[in-house]
Write a structure and sequence with these properties.
The complex is a heterodimer of chains A (about 190) and B (about 450). With about 190 residues, chain A is of the alpha+beta class. Helix content of chain A is about 40%, strand content about 20%. The longest helix of chain A is centred in the first third of the chain and has 46 residues, at about 1-45. Chain B folds into two domains: about 60-175, Immunoglobulin-like (Sandwich); about 195-445, Aminopeptidase (3-Layer(aba) Sandwich). The chains are: A alpha+beta (about 190), B alpha/beta (about 450).
């Protein structure tokens, strides 16, 4: 009886050892290289602290109070290695509106940016339909909306020369029935103060 | 349309591929079962052929073509819509003989659907009269068992047409007048380095031959001296489903500008030597491209688009403003695009980009005149209304490009400004606006 139970116990123990061994082995195989990597990273963190995120000063164009022309305002944004990503950040700031209370926003506040693509020297900016639907209309309102987008982007990225505005992924004829936006637009200096 | 065709082609080739695999399988089967099987297969093939022969006759539902097409006459084109089966294909040819210009469209496989319970026999013909500016009549004929011929009698051999599928079951045929842009592009040869050069050349040629009845040159180089009547085209902005801008108390731009245009028309009608046209006389929706198309077809001398202004947020913005078209600037260069388009001009497909450039060029010829007119109208308008003078500006306006005449867009005040909105409601103020535009226009004409 004793022998039997001992054998049983031994067998159990061996089994446990094997299981634990296997588990440790597996864990070792999986975790060790990870640990090594992390260790290297940790070392790096200790030796040189991560650099602060690079900031970039950009110019945003808003409407002056008379609605005659566009006036620029500076803003700090986090720089990104990708042009499209950075352009999206800038446009988000543009939708937010100006800090100076004497200036006015140029885009409906509901506007969303769906995507920004870059091809050759042209930006393709895909806006949600609210840019069109929530627009007040009027040649002046439309002119300021379109050229605040175009001039802001082209001012901050000198390597690019055109902006194509898209609504829900498609080119549109106009935003509110005046300015032709079927094709890419270039910078318009006559609306900048 | 092209890309759609390509897609069908692709599907077809895919089907072919499956067909090939099947036939291979058949082949293996044939070898295994040896000769005794051949007779069996043959009889099946025979039966299948019988089935194929019987199929088109009994398949009106699959290849049916509506007996009565729909007709729509628009000022600038005629649209004909034909109901057809999804599987029915079409080919078309145009005969431009001057006595009987006709457009032939063959539908296959196609059977005209039974009419009043009567089956249509081969040779049956159904005629319809249209008699508008572009199409005289249409007839449908069951030419063969599975071929339906559609014939359009055209009003003039100088027409352009578009045939496309609205959905697989609706064949749309649009017939319009001479396509100015295609004609313009055809004139330029690929070898010429600049489009402007070819246009100048064209100009010289037509000056030598004043009798040449060319639509384009007549539009582009209209001689003013001999003309006695000035055709003024007034374009009240927006309309119908497009209200334009709306004021704080709900006044709609489309209503104000229509009223002002009508007042202005009254003033102009009293002038000798002036004929007035309106792009819309009621609250109807007219697409932007049709507005200049109408003006060009009329052969207008001056195009004035009337709008009410608005801003997004600042409701205090006020004043009157006049715009003329500014050219798009293209990275690639207008000449390069035009030259490239010329190379593949056998088909009457011209890219939208090239068209846009050419429309710009057309309006650009009137840039100075449009600019002069803008200043005259703006000056008078700010005086008669007493509103702030915001000056003359230029921008790429959809409705102005492509106008083969001096063209301006007048913003008669800010409907988004509560004070100006109240003024715009008043009949007296509307009359003063009309008077301002009228005075400026009169100075220009003199």
């Amino acid at each position: 009886m004793k022998k039997k139970s001992e054998r049983k116990k031994r067998r159990k123990r061996i089994l446990i050892y094997i299981v634990v061994g296997v588990v440790f082995f597996a864990a070792g195989v999986l975790v060790f290289p990870l640990l090594q990597e992390k260790g290297y990273q940790i070392k790096e963190w200790i030796t040189k602290p991560s650099p602060p995120q690079e900031m970039k000063i950009v110019k945003l164009y808003f409407s002056e109070s008379t609605g005659e022309r566009l006036v620029s305002e500076e803003r700090k944004i986090i720089a990104s290695p990708q042009i499209g990503q950075e352009a999206k950040l800038i446009l988000k700031e543009l939708i937010e509106g100006p800090k100076d209370s004497s200036l006015n926003p140029t885009l409906p506040s509901e506007t969303q940016i769906r995507a920004v693509y870059v091809k050759d020297d042209c930006f393709y900016v895909d806006f949600s339909s609210s840019l069109k639907e929530k627009h007040s209309g009027g040649s002046t309102g439309e002119l300021l909306t379109i050229y605040s987008i175009v001039n802001t982007l082209l001012e901050n990225f000198p390597s690019q020369s055109q902006v194509q505005i898209l609504i829900q992924g498609e080119p549109a004829e106009t935003l509110a029935g005046h300015i032709d936006i079927r094709n890419p637009l270039s910078k318009n200096f006559s609306v900048i103060k | 349309m092209n890309s759609k065709n390509c897609f069908t082609g692709y599907i077809n080739s895919k089907n072919c591929f499956t067909g090939y695999i099947n036939s291979k399988n058949c082949f293996t089967g044939y070898i295994n079962s040896k000769n005794c099987f051949t007779g069996y297969i043959r009889s099946w093939i025979f039966l299948f052929c019988l089935f194929l022969l019987a199929h088109p006759a009994g398949a009106e539902q699959d290849y049916g073509v509506g007996r009565k097409p729909e007709f729509h006459s628009y000022p600038t084109y005629t649209q004909i819509v034909l109901e057809k089966a999804e599987k029915t294909g079409y080919v078309h040819v145009i005969s431009k003989s001057s006595s009987h210009p006709r457009l032939f469209i063959n539908l296959f496989p196609a059977v005209i659907l039974p009419f009043q319970g009567k089956k249509v026999k081969v040779g049956d013909k159904y005629e319809f009269k249209v008699e508008d500016r572009f199409v005289q009549g249409v007839y449908l004929e069951q030419e063969l068992d599975s071929v339906v011929k559609v014939v359009l009698d055209l009003a003039s051999p100088d027409c352009t047409y578009n045939i496309f599928l609205e959905d697989p079951r609706r064949l749309v045929i649009e017939v319009r007048g001479k396509d100015l842009i295609v004609e313009l592009l055809k004139k330029g040869t690929p070898s010429s380095s600049s489009l402007f050069a070819t246009q100048v050349q064209e100009e010289e040629e037509t000056e030598e031959k004043p009798y040449e009845k060319d639509v384009i040159s007549s539009l582009l180089l209209r001689q003013r001296e001999g003309e006695k009547v000035y055709k003024v085209v007034l374009d009240p902005g927006h309309g119908g489903k497009d209200p334009g801008a709306t004021g704080p108390s709900g006044l709609k731009e489309k209503d104000v500008v229509l009223a002002v245009a009508k007042e202005l028309a009254k003033l102009l009608e009293e002038e000798p030597g002036v004929k007035v046209y309106l792009t819309r006389r009621d609250d109807s929706f007219i697409p932007l491209n049709q507005r200049t198309e109408i003006a060009n077809q009329i052969g207008g001398d001056i195009f004035i688009s009337i709008h009410a202004n608005a801003t997004l947020y600042n409701k205090e913005v006020s004043g009157v403003e006049t715009f003329f078209n500014s050219r798009y600037s293209y990275g690639e260069g207008a000449e390069a695009v035009a030259a490239r388009e010329n190379v593949s001009l056998e088909s009457e497909d011209v890219s939208e980009e090239a068209k846009a450039i050419l429309w710009d060029l057309i309006q650009d010829r009137y840039r100075n005149e449009s600019n002069d007119l803008s200043h005259l109208v703006q000056g008078e308008l700010s005086e008669t209304t007493g509103l702030e003078n915001r000056g003359v500006k230029s921008a790429p306006f959809y409705v102005l490009r492509g106008a083969a005449m001096p063209a301006i867009l007048v913003e008669i005040g800010f409907i988004s400004n509560p004070w100006e909105e109240r003024e715009l409601k008043g009949e007296d103020f509307r009359k003063r606006i009309a008077l301002g535009i009228f005075k400026g226009l009169k100075v220009y004409l003199e």
